[in-house]
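Allow me, if you will, to draw on your knowledge of protein folds for a short while. I have a record of one protein: its chain in single-letter code and its fold written as discrete structure tokens. The full record is reproduced below for your convenience:
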Amino acid sequence: MADVAERAGVSVSTVSRTLRGLTTVSPDVRARVEQAARELDFAASRHAASLVTGRTGSVAVLVPTLSSWFVGAALSGLGLVLRAAGMDLTVYVIPGMAERRAFFEHLPARRNADALLVFSFDLTEEEAGRLDKLGMPVVYVSQHVDGRPSVYVDDVAGALRGTRHLINLGHRRIAYVQTVGTGGFSFSSQERLVGYRQALTEAGIPPDEDLV
């Protein structure tokens, strides 16, 4: 930063304010500092800056897999939004129980991100409690966690309407295929099963568990 300041003819603190995007720098000075930085191939260190500002400029995401089309699409959309805001994306993939235990024991997102998004995870109450202690905003995506910020599909209503549509077409033996396992997404399957059963009940169709 001292080299950039010398070339631009300004102080180091002015270079710092310019590169942090503060509005207390005039357009002329900003242009000179940015030109000097380009000529010197200077890149600001997020890690060094975080020691001063307490912010990393990064958002972390916790996902159970990268092979899911949903997770891939969601991360692509999130990446576009963060880039537009000048922020980075850090992804933690937890494919198995060993990785899961290690993540919740050490919480590597702490001090390495400003916020955490949790995608499609079947969390225990203890694990959710650990995330509450991160000291950063935590948002749950594609799942509803009571008492915590969540963005999710109404799985019960979706399955209810889908099953009701099949009933209205005259079908009476309607099967339901559910997801099982600890890799995530089974909570959505359980919620949809509730909607499926509700639709059968309201139509007076006795539920047949052999069709689940």
